[in-house]
Amino acid sequence: MKMNDSLTQSSIKVAKQAIIKTPDQINWWMWLALAELGIIAFLIIKEQLKPKDTAKQRFKEESLKQEIDFSNIINSSFNSIQLYDELKVKCHPDRFPTDMEKNSIAENIFQEISKNKNNVKRLLELKEEAIQKLNINF
Amino acid sequence: MLDNTWNNILDWFRDRSERAKLVRSFNESARTSFVAGIAPTLLKASISKGESSYKHQFSNWLNTGFRIQAFTGRVLTKDELIHIGKVILDDDVLVRRLIVLGWDTLEIHGDAGNYGCRWQLKDYIPLPKFNENE
């Protein structure tokens, strides 16, 4: 009985020594390999999950970068017809039949007016241009 | 496979946020213009079901309509509806933004009456053909 006890005690002692690692027993190489593996896995996953630079993606990115002038859109929805009607009459090239220079300027302005008939901001710029270059009184 | 799914999830969340931001910005501008007296009618943008036959390569699965409601208190004439639509469609930057954010239909209607106008957005901007396998 006594012998059995001492055997058990000895076995427990040996087992404890085997399980508990002293600082000297840490396998640094294993941890280094694990860290390397982690870094490699991280880099691979990061590369895989990076958005692909496709033409579609580029088109989308470019479109999202541009600024939208909502106040001009709202303003144009209600005030562009009136302004366009006024400008198309006052800036018509036929109003300058003798002065060829002014006729040419009026033609360019008139074309721009027709092109931007639903854009109040641009129409106002053209109105200013017409006042300065064609001496039109609005 | 994994990267595609992951990027699709990210894109979906980002698009959702951009869509909400665009609608909010439009409504804020409309409200400011109405309060300042620049616009005689209050416009309100919202997301609607859209028309499934107008689909394009950027279209969302659901809710592909960009609806603008004009609060006039009367039935808007067809010309008035068309003019508001034309102003939106003439703005290339806005149409492009609507398309890339998954909208394919523009709807304009008033608060009274039960008719409105509808446009197919892809008709108003040249969309390049993209190779999905690129």
What secondary-structure arrangement, pairings included, does this model have?
The complex is a heterodimer of chains A (138) and B (134).
Chain A: H1 2-19, H2 28-49, H3 55-65, H4 70-90, H5 100-115, H6 120-134
Helix pairs in contact in A: 4-6, 5-6
Chain B: H1 2-36, E1 42-48, E2 65-71, H2 78-90, H3 92-100, E3 105-110, E4 116-120
Parallel strand pairs in B: 2-3
Antiparallel strand pairs in B: 1-2, 3-4
Describe this structure in words.
The complex is a heterodimer of chains A (138) and B (134). With 138 residues, chain A is an all-alpha fold. Chain A has a domain at 64-134. Chain A has six helices and no strands. The model of chain A has no long low-confidence stretch (mean pLDDT 86). Chain B has one domain (19-124). Helices cover 43% and strands 19% of the residues of chain B. By secondary structure, chain B is of the alpha+beta class. The A-B interface holds A 48-52, 54-56, 59-60, 63-64, 66-68, 70-71, 73-81, 118-119 and B 2-3, 6-7, 10-11, 18, 22, 25-26, 28-30, 32-33, 38-41, 43, 57-58, 83-84, 86-88, 90-91, 93-94, 96-97, 99-100, 128, 130-132, 134.
- How many separate helices of chain B? 3
Largest interface: A-B, 28 and 40 residues
User: How many strand elements of chain B?
Assistant: 4
Low-confidence stretches of chain B: none
The Cα radius of gyration of chain B reads 16 Å
Over all CA atoms, what is the radius of gyration of chain A?
A: 41 Å
- Helix-strand pattern of chain B: HEEHHEE
